[in-house]
Amino acid sequence: MSQPSSQHHLVEQHTVDYVPPSERHGKARDLFTLWFSTNIAPLPIVTGAMVVQVFHLNLLWGLLAIVLGHLLGGVVIALASAQGPQLGIPQMVQSRGQFGRYGALLIVFFTALIYVGFFISNIVLAGKSIHGIAPGVPMPAAIVIGALSATAIGVIGYRFIHTLNRVGTWVMGSALLAGFIMMFAQELPGDFFSRGAFNLSGFVATVSLGIIWQISFSPYTSDYSRYLPREVGIAKPFWATYLGATLGTILCFSFGAVAVLCVPEGTDAMVAVKQATGWLGPVLMVLFLLNIISHNALNLYGAVLSIVTAIQTFAAHWTPSIKLRVVLAGVILVGCGLVALNASADFIGQFIGLILALLLVLVPWASINLVDFYLIKRGEYDIASIFRADGGIYGRFNHHAIIAYACGILVQLPFANTSLYVGPYSNIVEGADLSWLFGLLVTVPLYYCLATRAQPEMAQRVVGVKS
């Protein structure tokens, strides 16, 4: 039963069900703080350092590529986020309106796997950070502390996650700006502006990295906007998400690039941050640790919603309770915790390689999702059909979406450049993974053509359901 809007619960009461208008709350600007704070963490700093250390760009061309990549990729995450207030359901549940009730299961599975992968990786990273800050805490205990902290935030849910990130925006944003000031206030190395140079492969690789980084968030963006009132429209959530996600990542990527330029060439990125920011370095390490834990709560939250969505697919008349969300969070915590405790020294690198390879499945999904919402159905979905056992007007399988999705994955494989698989044409631009581009170029027009041809059939289904 829905809770009255006058009651404010600490623990979120919804799982994957529809959020009725009476329970909508918040403002679009909350999306800015969520995505800004989420992206200020060690991983984007280390990734930004790659622009100098791996792609060998100088500061000017590196910053230009960082900005361009994230501004382009940010359009995808912002368009996905703007769907939440219009539909009031999680992103993976909404996929039933594009792939059919059972057709959506594959992308739900991949998404859950990606969430779990990042959750485990961040548990290990949090454990290492805790052990580094307090060497007296054994590594296993540090991993458990990091895992339990993220789980507690994820169980409490939507409102608490937003609150933490509102605070985090001011704290982390201020700390990052102070770090920039500390770095530029010192005497800069003689090769600070001249180290590296423009090279096409490095520039394209950096732009691609920014685009892929933003797309990777798209499967769960509307999970954090679905409680907003429908009246906020599309433009406000779009711009709040776009500015938060792009500004946060651009600042953090740039921070990593500047930090490694402030120290001798070849210095580890996080070591460079400590050295380049002086007395502020240890403070930044503590703040980064807190942000890892907060961000990891999003991974747990998304994993739980994805798993609940998969289960509910086979039990249409069952409304998952808050108890199930808590139980699933506990199961994921135990399973992921055991994996993290037995992880090898290079586990994070190996797992991130697997997750980045799985991003091949997100590009065609994002293409179909956005084309369907904005160009085909123009934001109008039958929520009742999405929860019906037979899929309602969307059916159990939407073969047009499934065909376009499969083609979108297959066309990327020859151009893929991942740690798990390297395609025969992966070096069109050396060092850059351009598979996402071919995925977009094929999936978007293919799905649009198939979906528009199917519109008369969809209209007949609508009449049949209403009658």
TrEMBL record:
Membrane topology: Multi-pass membrane protein
Keyword Coiled coil belongs to the record: no
Keyword field contains rRNA-binding: no
InterPro entries: Pur-cyt_permease, Pur-cyt_permease_Fcy2/21/22
Alphabetical keyword list: Membrane, Transmembrane, Transmembrane helix, Transport
MF terms in GO: transmembrane transporter activity
Gene3D superfamilies in alphabetical order: Hydantoin permease (1.10.4160.10)
Subcellular location: Membrane
Domain of life of the native organism: Bacteria
Pfam (any one): Transp_cyt_pur
Spans traversing the lipid bilayer: 32-52, 59-82, 102-125, 137-161, 167-185, 197-217, 237-264, 276-294, 326-345, 351-376, 397-415, 435-451
GO CC terms in record: plasma membrane
UniProt similarity note: Belongs to the purine-cytosine permease (2.A.39) family.
Entry-linked PANTHER family: PURINE-CYTOSINE PERMEASE FCY2-RELATED
Protein name: Nucleobase:cation symporter-1, NCS1 family
